[in-house]
What we know:
mainly alpha; rod-shaped
Amino acid sequence: MSPTDDRGPVLIVDDDPDVRDMILEIFRSSGYRCQVATNGREALQVFERLHPPLTVTDVRMPVMDGLEFLKRARRVDGEAVVLVLTGVGDVRTAVESLTSGAYDFILKPVKPSELLDAARRALGHRDALVARREQHELLERRVAEATSELEATLRRLEDTYRSTLEALGSAIDTRDVGTHGHSRRVRGYSLVIARAHGVPDSRLRDIEHGVLLHDIGKIGIPDAILLKPGPLTAAEWKVMRRHPEIGRRLIEKIPFLRGAVPIVYHHHERWDGTGYPLGLRGEVIPLGARIFAVADALDAMTFDRPYSHAITFEAASAEIQRCAGTHFDPAVVDTFLGIPLEVFAAIRRSSTEVSVSADETEAAILAIPGLARALSAAGREAAGEVPGTAPDRLGASPTARAVRLQT
Length: 407
């Protein structure tokens, strides 16, 4: 420490003016800046104001002794170093001072060389503490910055994936006559119902992904079947009904999309067990797929399709209520009925319908590693499918027409 050192003064604490002045002279003659105090309380006031890097204090003083001052000062600044003055043979005081946080003790009568050597060691120790703390703080800042950058990167990546999935969902919709914008609307409906039904926020992303990609398997269905304007033959129905399986195999190999599998694979299951591909019944059907079924039917019945005209939200709501326990989970229907229809109407109005070009479709597919290759394989398998099952025989109710359009 030098006269130009900006770390602060040496604080000298002693009630004996002769000893205090002697120590003051030792430090000043060596170029140190100094402050003095006559007892522990006065010293603590100076310490709290200046945070001196080094304090030299006597033990036995009036008002507040040196050990009490030491304890309080260490609570104010854990990096400050304190040298305690003690008499020869006063081992108990020396030990107590060290256990209370003193860096070292100096025996009286004080020898200038010993005092200055101890001061240099103490200040070197303090500098090491400060350097260690600053290094630790620097590392913490760098970790925080790196974490923040990583989180921002992950958010951008998630936003990119979400945009990709939206584009891919729109691309799927444009392949299927009359379903333009369907995935975006049903996503909005499904998330509203899921939240109202108490689905944890941590599961909403999987529901969102599943809804956007629920018909991804149709990319593997030949256009001659998917775009056929009239009724499908038994052979064509068999091919069409493979799209949930195709979709499942496409996305289960992509780690961040595996949570979407339950909706993609089971979105045609029905509460009463008459759906496909597995004919699951009741609560065995994944909750996301049960929520999707209601949202999907709502959109199918309230949007014009080639085979039916749209009905009002009120009429669609009544039809969904009528089919609770057959097509739909009654508990999910109850949740749906508790949501004002204006909420669904607002989602429909805010669902921007942007047409997706072939180039955009290809870009969306290529954005997800492995998807283009999987789609190509799925398309080849679908094209070579052997016919053999009978078509569905659906009634003429709004729900039945909706199911025909959703297939």
